[in-house]
Amino acid sequence: MMANINETRGTNRDPITGEPGSHPLGTGVGALGGAAAGAAVGSLFGPIGTIVGGAIGAAGGGAAGHNVAESIDPTLETEYWKSEYQSRPYFNSKYDYDTDYAPAFSYGNRVRNEYANRPWDASLESDIKNGWESAKAKSRMTWDEAKNAVRDAFDRSDRTYRTYATTDQFYKNEYANSNYAKGDYSYDNDYRPAYRYGTQARSMNLDGKWDDRMEADLEKGWHRVKGESRLAWQDAKGAVKDAWHGVERALPGDADRDGR
Predict the structure, then answer these.
(1) What percent of the chain has pLDDT over 70?
(2) How confident is the model at residue 40 (pLDDT cuts 50, 70, 90)?
(3) How far is it, in rounded angstroms, from Cα 2 to Cα 195?
(4) Which residues lie closer than 8 Å to 41 by C-beta, 6 or more apart?
(5) What is the mean pLDDT of residues 32-60?
(6) With 0-12 CB in 10 A as exposed, 13-18 as middle and 19+ as buried, what is 31?
(7) Which residue in 22, 60, 126, 136 has its CB near the most CB atoms, within 10 A?
């Protein structure tokens, strides 16, 4: 019986050179390309969202996963920001979530989709500033008050797309070596959502441990994120667990911040 991905790839060999100890996904990702792209993703690893829709991959090119068929799950993003916005350094208690901050977070996601090849800088900010007036709906915030929330959502969205663009390719190359891969299921439709789920869960629990409680919590959430995957939890669990434990094999750099 074959072991799981992380056991079979314990030396973390580069898929091109075969050299041990490398982080293989530093090649061919987005406009940065090569090791720089992988390092950028690894250094940014933090809470990420959930993508719904079609595939991301090489077609995304410089957009690092931007694809018109895919988008950040709006329902889960609403849940995330609604629970987090009051802890952000820009939070102002005179504004509430539904009226004021929700349009800013939504605008940040939209900007990332429309300007996927561009970093957030003074030039981008200048280009999107006027768009806030039409995007704000009933928000009472001026652009200067809203822009930090807009950028927060932009950064999270960008981190989400770039992380999945990297991990998707890694697990697509590796999943067939696992002991849970079944020929009746495909990577794109069935296993990819499971790997993304494990990656996303780890991003939200960098100091957490995979134990019975964590597994039970993830099992409860699987039906919400599986999309069109045909995998029941028992079939998906191995891939989710591999992604949870394999973050540094899929993302170059000290993604889990353990100093190794």
Answers:
(1) 70
(2) very low
(3) 18
(4) 25, 29, 159, 162, 163, 166, 251, 252, 253
(5) 48
(6) middle
(7) 60
Q: What is the pLDDT of residues 87-129, one digit of tens each?
A: 999 999 999 999 999 999 999 999 998 998 899 999 999 999 9
Place of tokens 């090649």: 27
Residue with tokens 């390719």: 169
Residue type at 161 in one-letter notation = Y
Tokens of 70: 């895919």
Written as one letter, the residue type at 58 is A
Residue 85 tokens, joined: 């916005």
Q: Is the pLDDT of residue 232 over 60?
A: yes
Q: What whole-number distance in Å separates Cα of residue 137 and Cα of residue 182? A: 48
